[in-house]
Amino acid sequence: MSFFDKIFGGKEEQSQQKSFWKKIQSEEDLAAAIEQSHTGRIAIFKHSTSCFISKTVLRNFEKELENSDQQAADLYYLDLLAHRPISNKIAEEFGIRHESPQLIVIENGKAVKNASHQDISISQLV
């Protein structure tokens, strides 16, 4: 892995993804996630794999999750660079301006909380 890949996110990022994430890679995945929100709270983490700030916030959020003894939501991960149209659909459907990184908490098909950048933490999940 090159120096720039370590800083900005490279090919290894996918293999390092934590097991608690469910990926959103299609509109069908998004629809299934929203459907899941009717039986329990979900959270979608929108991440730009080329942004140092987004990568740092993702790492910090994952560390918080790993150090927590409870998980209050099913966690979904969206790679913004690979799936920008899905991100746009999320912004339109929930009326939330797109930001990166961004965490959107959904319950019963409605966005109940959202945070971006340094405001993202596991406290948003409860």
Would you tell me the structural class of the helices and strands? Answer: alpha/beta
For the CA atoms, what is the radius of gyration? 14 Å
CATH superfamily: Glutaredoxin
Identify the strand order in the major beta sheet. 1-3-2-4-5
Q: How many distinct domains? A: 1
Helix content: 25-40%
- CATH top-level class: Alpha Beta
Second rung of CATH, namely the architecture: 3-Layer(aba) Sandwich
Gross morphology is: globular
Number of helices: 5
Give an overview of the whole structure.
- The protein has 126 residues and is α/β, with parallel strands linked by helices.
- The protein has one domain (3-125): Glutaredoxin, CATH 3.40.30.
- It is 37% helix and 22% strand.
- The protein is built from 5 helices and 5 strands; from the N terminus they run ααβαβαβαββ.
- The protein has helices at residues 3-8, 12-15, 27-36, 52-66, 84-94, and strands at 21-23, 42-47, 74-79, 102-107, 110-116.
- The chain has a 5-stranded mixed β-sheet, sandwiched between helices.
- Strand 2, helix 4 (52-66) and strand 3 form a beta-alpha-beta unit.
- The model is unreliable at 11-15 (pLDDT under 50).
- It comes from Chryseobacterium soli.
- Pfam families: BrxC.
